[in-house]
Design goal:
By secondary structure, this protein is α/β, with parallel strands linked by helices. It has 14 helices and 11 strands. The protein has an 8-stranded parallel sheet with strand order 1-9-8-6-5-4-3-2. Bound molecules: flavin mononucleotide (FMN). Flavin mononucleotide binds next to strand 3, strand 9 and helix 9.
Length: 299
């Protein structure tokens, strides 16, 4: 199976994961210029913002880049049209099946790469026309499923015939080699890029990622909410307390609502949601993204 850089036209077989409120046009362009496939994440954006961020990205790179669309977003239909109108070449999707957009996207020559947390969903998405699949294990930062990358990647590789990209728990060359050994054709990373010069998050957030041990990246919402991996802090302690006490989804949402933005823009490490994966325990310094990508691919 070809590596994804040969298909996507990038230097490295690496995708910079779409990250809500973080993956701007400038950040995606920086990652594309550094040899990976940069992604703009629609999380936290309006349709107008997405169009602007795509144009910013185009003005800063002539390399391939893409857009990550969360299908549960209320503006998903509009985002789906904007990527076509703006000539975006790669779309990754989360939280569902993009089947209803497939015909339009394929006609526009878009490579469609859904993110899955279970092999059975990968099979269904391949049938719907997915060109590749991102298999994201629960070591990752942000929303998580049940399976680990170690179990999810080979089972997804066995379930589909399109290339599979491993995500979750990858932050150095040992894990890249492991992903390829499991049958992956490429990797997607998020957490290790939080501590980069180019990442547009508050310095406090970067420092918290560097300080954190792997065990500090816990999952909230496993009982009564939506499972999300974040760094332990005052917000997660309160969330878990309420969750154990049987709070319903709407009450729990009060803790998380807007709290990623508080972490990203205000550097609030106490009540903000510091989404990060278990590889935080390996992230020791702030580096340029080019250096991070080169190290990932060093043999
Ligand atoms: C802060 C943060 C925000 C994220 N937001 C999104 C998102 O909006 N959409 C999405 O598909 N994935 C999101 N992810 C997941 C990443 O795209 C990527 O798959 C994941 O970070 C890879 O695992 P790693 O964190 O172990 O590197 C997010 C991850 C992080 C760390």
């Amino acid at each position: 199976m070809k590596k994804i850089n040969e298909i996507l036209g990038t230097e490295f077989p690496i995708i910079q994961g779409g990250m809500a409120n973080i993956a701007t046009g400038s950040f995606a362009a920086a990652c594309s210029n550094a040899g990976a496939l940069g992604l703009i994440g629609v999380g936290g954006m309006t349709p107008k913002m997405l169009r602007e961020e795509i144009r910013i990205c185009k003005s800063k790179t002539d390399k391939p880049f893409g857009v990550n669309i969360m299908l549960l977003h209320p503006d998903a239909d509009e985002f789906a049209d904007i990527v076509v109108e703006e000539g975006v070449k790669v779309v990754t999707t989360g939280a569902g099946n993009p089947a209803k957009y497939m015909e339009k996207w394929k006609a526009a020559g878009i490579t469609v790469i859904p993110v899955v947390a279970a092999p059975i969903l990968a099979k269904a998405l391949e049938k719907s026309g997915a060109d590749m699949i991102i298999a994201e294990g629960c070591e990752s930062g942000g929303h998580v499923g049940e399976m680990t990358t170690m179990t999810l990647v080979p089972q997804t590789v066995d379930a589909v015939s399109v290339p599979v990209i491993a995500a979750g728990g990858i932050a150095d060359t040992r894990q890249v080699k492991a992903a390829f050994a499991l049958g992956a054709s490429g990797i997607q990373v998020g957490t290790c890029l939080l501590a980069s010069d180019e990442c547009p998050i508050h310095e406090n957030y970067k420092k918290a990622v560097i300080k954190a041990k792997g065990t500090d990246a816990i999952v909230t919402g496993r009982i009564g909410g939506t499972p999300v991996r974040v760094l332990k802090n005052k917000m997660t302690r309160e969330y878990i307390k309420q969750e154990k006490a049987g709070a319903d989804l709407m009450e729990l949402e009060k803790f998380t609502l807007g709290s990623l933005r508080r972490a990203v823009f205000e550097g609030d490490t106490e009540t903000g949601s510091l989404m990060a994966g278990q590889t935080c325990g390996q992230v020791k310094e702030i580096r340029p993204v080019r250096e991070i990508f080169k190290e990932l691919m060093s043999v």
